[in-house]
Amino acid sequence: MKLAYFDNYRLGVVTGDTIVDVSGVVKDIPHTGPGNLISGVIEHFAVYRPRLEEAARAQGVPLAQVKLRAPLPKPVNIECMAVNYMEDGTLKEPAPINGFHKSPSAIIGPGDTMVLPDVPAGIFEGEAELAVVIGKRASHVRAADAMDYVFGYTNFIDGSARALPPPGNVFYQMKSRDTFAPIGPYLVTKDEIRDPQKLQVRLWVNGTLKQNFNTDDMAHNIPRCIEWVTSIHTLEPGDILATGTNHRGLSSFQDGDAVELECEGLGRLKINVRDDLKRTWARTTRLEHKEKGADGAFTPQLTGKYAKA
Predict the structure, then answer these.
(1) Torsion of the alpha carbons at 151, 171, 169 and 87, rounded to the nearest 10
(2) What is the helix (H) or strand (E) element at residue 204, kind and residue range?
(3) Directed axis angle between helix 45-55 and helix 34-43, to 10°?
(4) Alpha-carbon distances, residue 106 vs 101, 156, 209 (angstroms)
(5) pTM
(6) 175 within 8 A of 164, measured Cβ to Cβ
(7) Which H helix or E strand runs over 39?
(8) Fewer Cβ neighbours under 10 Å: the N or C end of the chain?
(9) What is the pLDDT of residues 56-101, one digit of tens each?
(10) What structural domains and CATH numbers belong to the chain?
(11) In sequence order, which residues have a C-beta less than 8 Å from that of residue 288 and are 6 or more positions away?
């Protein structure tokens, strides 16, 4: 099943190119807004699924006629895995398992805009990622049991303001900026994805394919990631665990960009980028930058505020 919010945060079930309003089915779930409504649906999905399936048989409206919203407007936690790919097998061994917390206030949805802030970042990037959505309260979960705690999946772009001063641990200010966590266009329940470790992930910038990799290249698989994160703190229904990216295809996000992400089977997430400072970078990927023998991990800023002479 594909669940989505649309228009004024009506809950819908997506079937093909249409969406059916099923808000009436879940109205008895205690909630104060769309954020904890969807977490309630997820937590009690076994009860509500038959009712949702029945309601979804009604005639829907074309997706093209509605405004899709972030399917998880306010999760309790967003946890992101760091350096969790073998970079197309070019790394000799996996990096030690690691991650970071990203502010839930960073979430935006389909058709929304990532806004690049007035900060001296070396570059702004958006990382294509498969996000796992947690289905029930999870604490100290064993890897062998981890998939029982998965509700489903969604597309996730991990916005990053790289190389901010001071040097060192800058994950907080690099990752948790407002608008730096685009998700959607909907939630796909786990039964629709045969193997989440064999999904092609593609990201386009202005129609040019930049990232193109498979989740089978993960250094630490989904069960291990869930095991590790829940050994640190509890995850709640509707929380997001972003599983990392292959960095070789990363490139600059700039003013006016149209970005599209599609993890296989999860639909296509489309967002825009705005930079009021109109800064520019070369369009080369990290891999292309490296193959040119250039210095640094990524192309330097070319023009605009903070560009170095």
Answers:
(1) 70
(2) strand 200-205
(3) 100
(4) 11, 12, 25
(5) 0.98
(6) no
(7) helix 34-43
(8) C
(9) 999 999 999 999 999 999 999 999 999 999 999 999 999 999 999 9
(10) 2-69 (no CATH), 78-303 (3.90.850.10)
(11) none
Token duo for residue 86: 């073998």
pLDDT tens digit sequence for 106-119: 999 999 999 999 99
Task: Select from 220, 196, 66 the least CA-distant residue to 131.
Answer: 196
Q: Are 124 and 253 contacting, i.e. CB atoms less than 8 angstroms apart?
A: yes
What is the rounded CA–CA span in Å between residue 125 and residue 257? 12
Is the link from the previous residue into 185 a cis peptide, with omega within 30 of 0? yes
Q: 């489903």: which residue's tokens?
A: 152
Sole residue written with tokens 């009712």: 51
Q: How would you label 93-107 residue by residue, b for 16+ Cβ within 10 Å and e otherwise?
A: eeeebebbbbebebb
The per-residue pLDDT for range 210-229, each reduced to its tens digit, is 999 999 999 999 999 999 99
Distance CA 135, CA 151 (A): 4
